[in-house]
Amino acid sequence: xxxxTINIHDKHFAPFIKFEEIDRAVAQIADRMNKELRDKNxxxxxxxxxxxxxxxxxxxxxxxxxxxxxxxxxxxxxTKSTETVRQLIGIDEDVVGxxxxxxxxxxxxxxxxxxxxxxxxxxxxxxxxxxxLLYKPNTFKGDYAIDYVGLxxxxxxIVGYGLDYDKQGRNYKxxxxxxx
Length: 180
Fold this sequence. Notes:
Elements: E1 6-8, E2 11-17, H1 19-36, E3 43-48, H2 52-60, E4 67-77, E5 80-89, E6 99-107, H3 111-122, E7 127-135, E8 148-152, E9 158-159, E10 175-178
């Protein structure tokens, strides 16, 4: 089956990463977590909206006691990062002394995670790890380690598998990149 370009609003997107490759990357992250986090009873904090598919698929592959909660942050307008992060739904769990894993769909500049890290440190999290399905090393500006990376990609704007363009495109199983 030949996949075709998709249209969302005024943009065109071409096939980029098939679900099978995404699923392999999620499984590799889960395998590491199953070894490294087994006795830590971590609290996973998934960043909405984009990470919901990654968080769900990852959580299905974990075989140790853990919990999950969600925060909602926004930093994009259209196809560009606004360079400011707005918190729409905050952390409502007790994180003092907890082992935390932040789950993000994509890390590009790193500003969103920087804000979450600062907040978690201020309220007393014991150990904080970061898991991202996608990582853009060429645009990363953060000064922190990313513990679990599924796939490194270039600076293309992408949609699908939870990622959107102006609220559309999250539902695609595969990931598509903009061709305009």
